[in-house]
Please model this.
Amino acid sequence: MSEHAFSNATIVLPTEVIHGSVLVRDGRITDIDRSDTRAAEDFEGDYIIPGLVELHTDHFESHYRPRPGVTWNAIAALQSHDAQIAGAGITTVFDAVRIGSDPEVGDITADVAAMIEAIGEADASDRLRADHHIHLRCELPTPDAADHFEAHCSNPIVGLASLMDHTPGQRQYTTLEHYTAYYQKKMRLSDAEMAQFIADRKAEHDRYSDGNRKRILRRGREIGLAFASHDDATSAHVDEAVRDGMSIAEFPTTMEAARASHGAGLAVLMGAPNVVRGKSHNGNISAAELAKAGVLDVLSSDYVPFALLVAAFLLPQRVAEISLPQAIGMVTAGPAAAAHLVDRGEIAIGKRADLVRVTRTTSVPVVRSVWREGRRVS
Model:
């Protein structure tokens, strides 16, 4: 039996913040006391919060493909990503792996397999600090998205899939201004080449999206996989998501879509960088506006792992209606519930001892220590 305690801590519980101690035994929280326990690690007043739960990060892919045309050793890339994830206080992560090949990324069939296999192998050999799962980002307007999904969806580490359509002129890119600004620079296209690129993407949408959506949903329902919609902009998009059994609404781009999703019982997920920056990088709705309206449920680090913790402490300062326990819940209990992980996400008796010690003296908090199931990992 392993047992240790943390005392003189500022403990963020689901509905309140208290001062006291937390007892951990065999990887589980066994006691929460409003007094200080003797013979315990002294937190010196620092915060103790649940380990963060991340549902959508593209960070592993950025380590695996650090430069255009360059792929890294998948296990080495994963370990680098994992160290940053754990160092940011994230103890459970759903690594987003894009499926679906197109001219932007080329044929990614082998890359998808390499990344998924790396996570399984690294986890089996106890190389990882955080608890890693797979989030399949299904790019619907591509020729092989459904085939990739079929090849990997039954892997036990796959726990979530999102249905994406980045066709110019809709959803995230309702106007072509942001789409053109991003892709023309990224792909170094002339105006004529950019016009053809947009036309090709629209043609691929017409050819592949509906069929891929039907195949992926049918197979996912057979195995009981959780699904997320992505970049919903209208009530019609939300109606489609509800019809298709989505449980998460990722990055709605308008208040209309966020309200409709929240009202329909979908967990509304927004990017933590949106909170930190105070706005969307694409000119869409801000996460703070959704929080003020009471329709924000989950935050995701998206492309900056440490943004998750910064946003959780920053949000109550930006939005008077949000308390610290509520904000912490958006990066812990909220995403855990959305992913059907009932054993974590709260400092509560019987839950996993996924815990983070945080010092906060300025607007940027400091992660001092991280424990996963009672074992220190960072």
The mean pLDDT is 92. Residues 51-343 form a domain with the TIM Barrel fold (CATH 3.20.20.140). The chain is about 40% helix and 25% strand.
